[in-house]
Write a structure and sequence with these properties.
Oligomer: heterotrimer
Shape of chain C: globular
Strand order of the largest sheet of chain C: 1-2
Structural class of chain A: alpha/beta
Strand content of chain A: 15-25%
Distance between the termini of chain C: 43 Å
Chains: A alpha/beta, B mainly alpha, C mainly alpha
Number of helices of chain A: 12
Largest sheet of chain C: 2 strands, antiparallel
Distance between the termini of chain A: 38 Å
């Protein structure tokens, strides 16, 4: 609800220190709601609001209503800290965020400092999509919990899948030049080298983030290298443009991606006509063949009008409830303690666990390809008519990686 | 001889009166800065005040270029950002090595960071003014912004470098953990920097900067090199922008590439221009307004950027002197005592203009709701009245408000112009308006 | 190696021509009116979205004509009701007006068409590979883009240098009063010029939309590099913009094709040095810094030759 009244009345939106009742559990949702990243942020917001409605319909958490407070951070770390402060002012003890590892790192740092400086007013940070491995390794924090598999875990799952695929001989790596892209490339090299030393890495490219308008020169290099598979962490336009350039040049390879399913991705794949040549690593897929998950997907699409891009958000909110009930409290410190080592049956089936050592959630990982559908795949994406098809499921134990985290506990 | 002596003492008397008023203003500003957080004490308002303070220093530093020297820069955030990074690195070094440098001195480090870089590249940049300067600043801005992602060891990649402000040596028992202490630190630096920058405009250098802005050819004739003048102004601007960056680093406890980016450069240009570049206090008003809008508007509407654009276009078209220019227009009328002649026409114009504004806001929000959200939540609240965005009545009301408001408002605006002309001509007769 | 050189040259020329298509309108406006139009990339975006919408309604070919005309009309309205009133406050005010406009247009576009990319496709008639070289296909659409760019370049040159209208336009820039005394309506001339410039941006949008991603942030992505092109080529010089577009297109493409870094040329640094600025610079590849190169060129040319490659006057 927009309160334009307040603009007209020139009220002071930031200056009011109204007292907030403790009955509702407020979760500050901090993600881009304007500017370039807004389409992603709005999708996430709708997902969380749907999940809050779902919880509230069943009596909330321990009788408390759940409310999502949308806060626009414009994908800017400084802005996110301001918004986090706003959330805390509004009485939120939980914040959730996903887009941008730089934002995630800044928020984790902020929450840690806030909690040490304000004992008794602790805030938990639930991370549903920032995948920088350092957040659960050297920079880990007791107050941070991550439901998305970090990029190393995803690479572990992907390489475990590629290990068994004898057709893969020459791999080309192309990634965005920032921490996520770099961790994809280094881990791909390392893990492929360990698991399939016979696979040749014929190219390893870093290109600037969201600055390239024409990928033809990169595609020319891929083509010249003779690669049969490309591994890329690219998202957004960097993914769409890369794929378009590849299709224009007639490049025939398999694409192993992290974010092909992101907004605009399926449209781009359909445009290029790469039928079941684009693979994605994710913690869940719409056509998972799990009745409960597909039922949820159907209801979600009918109500929200989007496909469920964040199955991890479902796990996050449901696990939050489970932890609060286990602790019999909505106090953040107690909920945090209850979350540690909590086992949970995830949306798409199978069991996951929130590891106590680093607060990373481990869950089954799916490899799926995008293309024409059979009867077993009822859901398409972005009205393209094409949908995701399961290629492999990597079980939780095969996604476990050691951590270097030395957590300081309160 | 005697006549000149008399006039000199006249000037001295006049200026001592001005001095009194001048110092009075600074004392009032200082008291306001101290009292503000006592009135509004929530965490959010403290954060807002801190950000506004930083924005004020940043905008004032930008005005050394734009307003004083006539240099339009599209890359001023470079100095803000480098100041921030310098501050963060020194803070981490102080914490690690136990140097006896307390936190309140860190903004100075930021300033030096900005200054050093400005000294390094300013010489080639300021060889020319005008479009060439604007374009070089754009290029340098993009270059530094991009290299911040490549030179990871200095800039920490896109996640930046974080620090802990409480880890520095404490003084007077202040840990600078709580936001209120940070606020007072920022307030102190705002006062000091603003005074220093004001003093700068009163020095011969400040005056010659104005001359370079207005007519570089003549400046050359009287024996000054405009290039050197621009270089000096540029270095000072870099120094104060660095102080602002250092304060931002203390406030957020993190420095990252967003500090250096085009968005930050654009915002400071916005703030300075909206406030008014021709007056010293213009950028202060602009910084307050823009920061406030940024914080407030974004939580009220998702299309805040559109309002920003509209406000900016409106200011450029109808008040090119900015808010400060609008306010200062009235000074001669007040002195001549003819302000009363225009006030009634303002009041008459207020109603239709407000109706027009409401109409515009209602149409924007209706369209935004209609296209962005679609499905649910189709109620827009304006002045407490809920409007259903799918109802034709809402669209009708919006259209009536916009069209009707515009037609009536135009008539009233014309009346303002007439009343203004009358008041101004009287003021001119009385000798208060040239 | 030959393969890479041939293909990179082709790609570079194609990309350079796209840049020229975009910067031609900006150059025309600047050379005629002295206005540096920050909203130019926004007109390009408008062109892409109008093109997308009209293609949906009436097909690509009518859209190719209509969408630029629409954008031109928007541009003329901006000149008539915005820039003309601001003109008396000087060029900085004009520039800032277009700056605000860029903000507003981006938000309006995302309000109407949303923030996700729209499905704007290459017309079926041009959706085939034109030729294949070293087993790489070149789509006919890119050749079409190339042809349009060259056509625009020639047409603009002729219009400005060889026609009566072009002469009046040039005269109106330097001696507006004299042209007015001769009985020409200077205001209308400026409006027309701004309209034509915007229409050119619109045309670029209609054509580039299907080849790139049509999205509400596409203006911000290409905006800064356009300034590099026209400043590098010399403000107001059409041939300069043409050469600069080609040059920047080629530089970027070849930079991407090269894998070299200081480390690969001189060998890796002694690991005992540890991570520092030096190791960062040592290990960065040319491909990594390719998109930054235009800005290096911009700064260098402005320092060495402030009027740009073919510019005749300093600004």
């Amino acid at each position: 609800m927009l309160k334009i009244t307040r603009v007209i009345a020139l009220a002071l939106p930031m200056l009011g220190g109204a007292a907030y009742a403790q009955e509702t559990i407020k979760i500050g949702y901090i993600d881009p709601l304007s500017g370039g990243g807004a389409s992603v942020g709005e999708g996430g917001l709708k997902t969380f609001q749907y999940l809050a409605d779902e919880l509230n319909a069943k009596g909330g958490i321990l009788g408390h209503k759940v409310e999502i407070i949308p806060l626009d951070n414009k994908t800017n770390p400084q802005e996110s800290l301001i918004q986090a402060q706003k959330a805390i002012d509004a009485g939120a003890h939980y914040i959730t965020q996903g887009n941008g590892s730089s934002v995630g790192a800044a928020l984790a740092d902020f929450v840690t400092k806030h909690n040490t400086r304000n004992p008794g007013k602790e805030v938990l940070y639930f991370n549903y999509a920032a995948v920088d491995p350092s957040m659960t390794n050297e920079k880990c924090s007791f107050w941070h919990f991550r439901w998305d598999a970090n990029s190393d875990v995803k690479m572990e799952a992907l390489t475990n899948y590629m290990k068994g695929n004898a057709a893969i001989k020459k791999v080309y790596l192309i990634n965005q030049d920032y921490s996520f892209g770099q961790s994809v490339r280094t881990q791909a090299r390392k893990m492929l080298g360990e698991k399939r030393p016979d696979i040749q890495v014929v190219g390893d490219e870093l290109h600037p983030l969201l600055k390239v308008t024409d990928f033809s020169p990169y595609v020319a290099k891929i083509k010249a290298s003779g690669a049969d598979s490309v591994v890329t962490g690219n998202w957004g336009q960097d993914f769409a443009l890369l794929l378009k350039a590849a299709a224009d040049a007639g490049l025939k390879v398999n694409w192993y991606t992290y974010y092909a399913g992101g907004a605009g991705g399926p449209t781009a794949i359909k445009q290029t006509g790469l039928d079941h040549q684009v693979f994605q690593i994710s913690e869940g897929i719409p056509n998972s063949d799990n009745p409960a998950a597909m039922e949820f997907e159907k209801a979600f699409r009918a109500k929200v009008g989007l496909s469920l891009w964040y199955p991890r958000a479902v796990n996050e909110m449901r696990m939050f409830k489970a932890a609060a009930e286990k602790a019999n409290s909505i106090d953040p410190v107690k909920v945090a303690a209850a979350l540690e080592d909590l086992k949970f049956d995830v949306l798409d089936g199978g069991s996951g666990v929130m590891r106590k050592d680093d607060h990373q959630f481990f869950q089954p990982i799916y490899i799926s390809s995008f293309g024409t559908r059979s009867e077993k795949e009822p859901f398409d994406e972005e009205n393209t008519g094409w949908g995701w098809r399961l290629a492999a499921k990597i079980d939780t134990p095969q996604t476990m990686l050691p951590t270097t985290c030395k957590m300081t506990r309160p | 001889m005697t006549s000149t002596a008399a006039s000199a003492s006249d000037i001295a008397a006049k200026s001592s009166g001005q001095n009194l008023r001048f110092y009075g203003l600074w004392v009032i500003a200082a008291i306001a800065l101290v009292v503000l957080p006592l009135i509004f004490s929530s965490g959010g308002s403290l954060t807002s005040f801190s950000l506004i303070g930083i924005a004020i220093i940043f905008a004032l530093s930008y005005n050394i270029l734009l307003g004083e020297t006539g240099l339009l820069s599209f890359g001023h955030a470079v100095y803000y950002g480098l100041g921030g990074f310098a501050a963060v690195h020194v803070m981490n070094a102080v914490a690690a090595r136990g140097w006896p440098i307390p936190l309140p001195l860190i903004p100075l480090v930021g300033g030096i960071g900005g200054l050093v870089f400005a000294l390094l590249i300013g010489w080639v940049m300021t060889r020319r003014a005008g479009t060439v300067f604007a374009m070089i600043s754009l290029g340098i801005g993009e270059l530094v912004g991009s290299s911040s992602l490549i030179l990871r060891s200095v800039f920490g990649g896109e996640s930046g470098i974080s620090t802990d402000r409480t880890a520095l040596p404490h003084i007077f028992g202040w840990t600078f953990g709580p936001q209120i202490q940070v606020y007072y630190l920022i307030a102190f630096w705002v006062l000091v920097s603003a005074m220093a920058m004001y003093a700068l405009t009163r020095t011969p250098l400040g005056r010659i900067c104005n001359a370079v802005r207005d007519n570089p050819g003549r400046v050359e004739f009287i024996g000054y090199d405009p290039h050197v003048v621009r270089y000096l102004a540029y270095s000072f601007a870099g120094f104060f922008a660095g102080i602002a960056g250092g304060l931002a680093a203390i406030n957020f406890e993190i420095a990252n590439s967003a500090y250096l980016g085009a968005v930050q450069s654009g915002m400071v240009l916005f703030a300075t221009f909206i406030g008014g570049a021709s007056y010293f206090f213009g950028p202060i008003l602009g910084a307050i307004l823009v920061t406030y809008l940024q914080l407030g508007l974004t939580s009220l509407t998702s299309v805040w950027q559109l309002y920003f654009g509209i406000i900016f276009i409106g200011i450029v078209m109808f008040a090119p002197g900015g808010i400060a220019g609008l306010l200062m227009m009235h000074r001669p009328l007040i002195r001549a005592g003819t302000l009363g002649m225009v006030i009634p026409s303002y009041l008459v114009a207020a109603l239709p203009t407000l109706a027009l504004a409401c109409g515009v806001i209602l149409s924007i929000e209706t369209v935004a709701r209609y296209t962005v959200t679609g499905g649910e939540g189709n109620i827009v609240k304006l002045l407490g009245i809920p409007f259903n965005t799918t109802a034709p009545a809402t669209w009708g009301i919006a259209a009536v408000l916009v069209v009707g408001g515009f037609i009536v408002a135009r008539i009233t605006w014309r009346r303002i112009a007439e009343a203004w002309d009358r008041a101004a001509s009287i003021a001119r007769d009385r000798g208060y308006l040239a | 190696m030959l393969e890479l050189i041939v293909i990179s040259t082709l790609n570079g020329v194609l990309f350079g021509m796209l840049l020229f298509l975009l910067s031609s309108g900006l150059t025309v406006i600047f050379s005629m009116m002295g206005v540096l139009n920050f909203a130019h990339a926004s007109f390009y975006m408008l062109g892409a979205f109008f093109g997308y919408q009209l293609t949906k309604w009436i097909g690509f070919w009518p859209a190719l004509v209509l969408a630029p005309l629409l954008v031109g009309a928007v541009g003329m309205a901006v000149e008539r009701y915005g820039l003309r009133n601001t003109h008396k406050h000087g060029h900085v005010a004009e520039l800032l007006l277009t700056f605000g406009l860029a903000f507003a247009i981006e938000e309006i576009v995302s309000m109407i068409w949303g923030k996700s990319p729209v499905d704007y496709r290459v017309p079926a008639a041009l959706d085939f590979p034109a030729f294949t070289i070293f087993s790489t296909n070149y789509p006919a659409y890119k050749i079409f883009m190339l042809a349009i760019s060259v056509l625009i370049f020639v047409a603009l040159l002729i219009a400005l240098k060889r026609t009566r209208v072009g002469l009046i336009v040039q005269a109106a820039l330097t001696h507006p009063h004299m042209v007015g005394h001769l009985g020409h309506n200077v205001g209308q001339v400026f409006m027309l010029v701004f309209g034509v410039g915007s229409a050119l941006a619109g045309l670029a949008g209609v054509i580039a939309g299907p080849a790139l991603v049509t999205q509400s942030d596409m203006a911000a992505l290409l905006g800064p590099i356009l300034f590099v092109v026209i400043v590098f080529g010399g403000l107001g010089s059409l041939p300069g913009a043409f050469i600069a577009s080609l040059f920047i297109g080629l530089v970027q493409t070849f930079a991407v094709a090269l894998n070299g870094s200081l480390a690969s040329t001189f060998g890796p640094l002694d690991p005992s040095i540890g991570p520092s600025v030096l190791t960062d610079i040592w290990n960065v590849t040319i491909a990594q810094i390719a998109p930054v190169l235009p800005y290096v060129l911009l700064v260098v040319i402005l320092i060495v030759r402030p009027m740009g490659l073919l510019g005749t006057r300093e600004t």
